[in-house]
Design a protein that fits this description.
about 290 residues, alpha/beta, Arc Repressor Mutant, subunit A, D-Maltodextrin-Binding Protein, domain 2, 3 domains, 3-stranded antiparallel β-sheet, 12 strands, globular, transcription
């Protein structure tokens, strides 16, 4: 690719598109988030690469990854967009508040980094996150205490946009072994927890002896208890560190279903909707059906 002198200002829309592809690792998901076509995304990136005189992304039929130049450009791209947003927000007054509830069984270890990216990309929004159970969050959403809620499927409701479905398993530490003659030790969140209810009903229906040995805390605490070898838990695999194993088949445990992730939203504000679109796309990318 022929280098060109850097003289004209960069297209901020193309820079933002580049960051979306870099963060999501997919032209398709970036197009969904930006509500445009994959062809439009490709064209913007081609123009940006031509403008910079280097390739930013390496494309193959299976994946998209940053080139060395693309990796170096990410920090500059974020700084450029942040400066642009700060310049605009200086003349738009107080930031708009966007309160999002996220189920503890959805949030996952990627949430802090994702929240930081959303704050950096939307400095005109004051994004507030509330973590809780799906049932609790939906009650707060119905009372309009939340602008949006990202939750698991809740019985009795048919509203909300299904973003994806996530597999669950009976997960244990790699060194964990059941004790002969003793009930299956279960590690779980405290009530109310839809996953806890589902898991207990499946175990009872299979007439398997089980006992709760660790109850309470958030999903992060439950994951730590599992990795410490205290017992097994019904969780999505992405919630646990690398090395956790699904022991369901080995122990003859009932299969756990894939559980939907739904987005509920009251907001119609364009800026808030754009942030929610990015949040939804990030979780579609993080959750592998």
């Amino acid at each position: 690719m022929t280098k060109q002198p850097v003289q004209r200002p960069l297209d901020l829309d193309a820079v933002a598109t580049f960051l979306q592809v870099a963060e999501l690792g997919s032209f398709t998901r970036a197009a969904e988030t930006l509500q445009t076509t994959q062809a439009a995304v490709s064209l913007k990136l081609k123009r940006l690469e031509d403008r910079l005189g280097c390739r930013l992304l390496e494309r193959t039929p299976r994946y998209v990854e940053l080139s060395p130049q693309g990796t170096a450009f990410v920090a500059h791209a974020r700084a450029l967009l942040e400066a642009h947003h700060h310049a605009l927000s200086a003349f738009t007054g107080a930031r708009q508040r966007l309160v999002i509830g996220i189920s503890d069984h959805v949030a996952g270890p990627e949430l802090p980094a994702l929240a930081a990216r959303l704050n950096a990309r939307h400095p005109d929004l004051l994004i507030v996150l509330r973590i809780g159970s799906s049932g609790e969050l939906l009650q707060r959403y119905d009372r309009r205490e939340l602008d949006a809620a990202l939750v698991r499927l809740h019985s009795g409701r048919t509203d909300g946009e299904v973003l994806t479905e996530e597999p669950f398993g009976w997960l244990a530490a790699p060194h964990w072994q059941p004790r002969a003659g003793e009930p299956l030790p279960i590690v779980t969140l405290a009530e109310p927890c839809g996953v806890r209810q589902m898991a207990s009903k499946l175990l009872d229906a299979a007439t398997l002896p089980w006992a709760e040995v660790f109850v309470g805390g958030g999903v992060g605490t439950v994951s730590q208890a599992v990795m410490a070898g205290l017992g097994i838990a019904a969780l999505a695999p992405r919630m646990l560190p690398l090395g956790a194993v699904d022991v369901g088949a080995r122990l003859g445990l009932p299969a756990l279903p894939r559980l939907p992730v739904l987005l509920h939203s009251h907001t119609r504000d364009a800026r808030a909707c754009a942030a929610l679109d990015e949040l939804a796309a990030a979780y579609r990318s993080a959750i592998r059906p």
